UniProtKB/TrEMBL annotation:
The chain holds residues 1 to 239 of 317 of the full protein. Belongs to the ABC transporter superfamily. This is Sulfate-transporting ATPase. Its EC number is 3.6.3.25. The keyword Nucleotidyltransferase does not apply. It comes from Tepidanaerobacter acetatoxydans (strain DSM 21804 / JCM 16047 / Re1).
Length: 239
């Protein structure tokens, strides 16, 4: 592993029968970077994240996450990686706070640390006042923010967020993106965020990769991509 790169992906391919979900992907991501995985439905974003977490085995190629091989060392990878799937399941009849205590218990966070940690995470995601309301009363934006708090409980080095802004209104999106920006810029966490809407996430991403039918067709900063492809509007259409 290059000292700077926390994620190294080489010649990574995943096939499901005749479908090539990820096609010879090569990508390096630096520590502390916010990287956007952009692409339409079925482009291979979720499959890539699942392989990075050791939840899906590559057909070929290699992956290193903080020097670990996710296929061979999934438990070690799980310790340093937080994953928010595109549909998060919370217990609707429990409050936001109770849901976090439940996850804290699952993650074996020592009891004496739980109160302060959960209070600070609820404040960080703007749910301090709603902490004792049942999750079934939460808006989608509030649930997504609770999802981020849930992922942060184990203080992961790397955070994978699968379509976190899906279905959020502009205000909900902005609130969530502010929190995600803080994770990368202030806390030095490496964040991979997938989306099919470039305009929603481009402002917070250091670099983005555009996936189409399993292939990474371009990667770079927004201005690099705009130069390569011929204007930001062109990127918008491709993504
Ligand atoms: P979305 O935004 O819809 O989640 P995505 O970019 O995350 O899309 P993937 O979910 O990774 O895309 O899917 C990539 C391709 O792999 C699609 O053609 C999908 O149908 C296929 N695929 C994903 N998982 C499986 C599976 N378990 N079995 C068979 N095919 C799969």
């Amino acid at each position: 592993m290059n000292g700077q790169n926390i994620i190294e992906i080489q010649n990574l391919t995943k096939r499901y029968g005749s479908i090539t979900a990820v096609d010879n992907l090569n990508l390096s991501i630096s520590k502390g970077e916010i990287f956007g995985l952009l692409g339409p439905n079925g482009a291979g974003k979720t499959t890539t994240i699942l392989m990075l977490m050791g939840l899906s085995e590559p057909t070929s190629g290699s992956i290193s996450v903080a020097g670990l091989n996710p296929t061979r060392e999934p438990i070690k990878v799980k310790r340093i990686v937080g994953y928010m799937p595109d549909s998060i399941g919370f217990y609707g009849d429990m409050t936001g706070r109770e849901n976090l205590y439940y996850t804290a218990k699952l993650n074996r966070i020592p009891e004496e640390r739980q109160d302060d940690l959960i209070d600070s995470l609820l404040a960080k995601v703007g749910l301090k006042d709603a902490a004792d309301r049942k999750v079934r009363e939460y808006s989608r934006g509030m649930r997504q923010r609770l999802g981020v708090a849930d992922v942060l409980l184990k203080d992961p080095e790397v955070v994978f967020l699968d379509e976190p802004t899906l279905g959020l209104d502009p205000e909900g999106t902005a609130e969530l993106l502010d929190i995600i920006t803080e994770l990368g810029k202030k806390e030095g966490k490496t964040v991979l965020i997938s989306s099919h809407l470039l305009h929603q996430v481009q402002a917070i991403c250091d670099r983005v990769g555009i996936f189409v039918k399993g292939k990474l067709v371009a990667a770079g900063t927004i201005s690099e991509l705009a130069q390569k492809i011929g204007g930001e509007r062109a990127i918008e259409i491709k993504a």
